[in-house]
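F.,

This is the one I mentioned.
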């Protein structure tokens, strides 16, 4: 049995179906296909995002899937099996003055989910603000995407940060007008994570992903969930070092 950790509150990547129990999304389809190819059953548990890496490191779970962005700092903690691309964007109330000019964020409050690496991007933007004599960006972290959005609605933050597809889903279902703004945040690869010493599982997952690319099931899953722009040409281990 393969034990899998996720945070099932991040559509279209993964979320609960109408029954409140079944986890659906493009990543569940990926891990279910991988399990079939590997000939194993799965046990999937949804936990807080910021607990994903520690839960894998401790051995509580074999692997975690949750569009975890691969970076060199995280590669010091776990091994990544990268299978998709992603990019981060800002979303904000439609009436705000936030624009594609990153300077429009200076002096504002940013909302983001705890445990994500969006904080790094905001710190870099904030440093650029102060270097140009503008006020810093104040980053506020919340336990979930839902809590971040509620903070935005309550005007505790001025804008929020998420990956592009999650932000698109958020704006489509928002009861209040929101806009997505691309301020030039970096693209990155995302992947599943396993312990450093679980080299056999990392190799098996990578080989199964390669088979999914070859047999067309990878492309079919992304197409079914309308996330084909996320497609990664070639899966790989710890691809952060090769990113621009």
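My design for it:
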């Amino acid at each position: 049995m393969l034990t899998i950790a996720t945070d099932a509150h991040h559509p279209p990547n993964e979320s609960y179906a109408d029954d409140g129990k079944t986890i659906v999304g493009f990543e569940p389809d990926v891990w279910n296909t991988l399990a079939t190819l590997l000939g194993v059953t799965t046990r999937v548990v949804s936990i807080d995002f910021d607990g994903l890496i520690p839960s894998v490191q401790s051995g509580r779970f074999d692997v975690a899937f949750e569009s975890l962005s691969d970076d060199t700092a995280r590669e010091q903690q776990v091994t990544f099996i990268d299978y998709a691309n992603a990019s981060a964007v800002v979303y904000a109330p439609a009436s705000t003055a936030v624009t594609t000019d990153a300077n429009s964020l200076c002096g504002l409050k940013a909302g983001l989910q705890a445990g994500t690496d969006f904080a790094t991007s905001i710190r870099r933007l904030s440093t650029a603000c102060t270097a140009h004599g503008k006020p810093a960006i104040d980053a506020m972290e919340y336990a979930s995407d839902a809590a971040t959005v509620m903070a935005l609605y309550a005007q505790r933050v001025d804008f929020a940060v998420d990956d592009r597809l999650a932000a698109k889903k958020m704006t489509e279902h928002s009861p209040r007008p929101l806009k997505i703004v691309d301020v030039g945040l970096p693209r990155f690869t995302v992947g599943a994570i396993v312990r450093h010493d679980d080299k056999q599982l990392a190799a098996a997952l990578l080989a199964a992903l390669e088979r999914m690319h070859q047999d067309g099931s990878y492309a079919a899953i992304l197409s079914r969930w309308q996330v084909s722009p996320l497609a990664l040409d070639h899966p790989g281990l710890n691809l952060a070092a090769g990113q621009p």
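The helical segments are 26-38, 52-57, 72-75, 118-131, 145-153, 164-172, 199-215, 217-224.

Talk soon.
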